[in-house]
Amino acid sequence: MKHESRIDELYLPTKSRAVHDELAVEKIWGDQGIRFSQVILVWQGSFDANVLTAERFARAHTVVQGILTDRVEHEGKTVTFADVCAGSIMPDGSCFLLSVFTWWDNKTLPSTDEQLIQELNAPTRVDRWGRPLRDEVPLLLAKAHHDAEGRVDSAAAYHFIFGTKRTDEGTSCSIRYVRLSLSLSSSD
Question: Source organism's superkingdom (predicted)?
Answer without folding.
Answer: Eukaryota
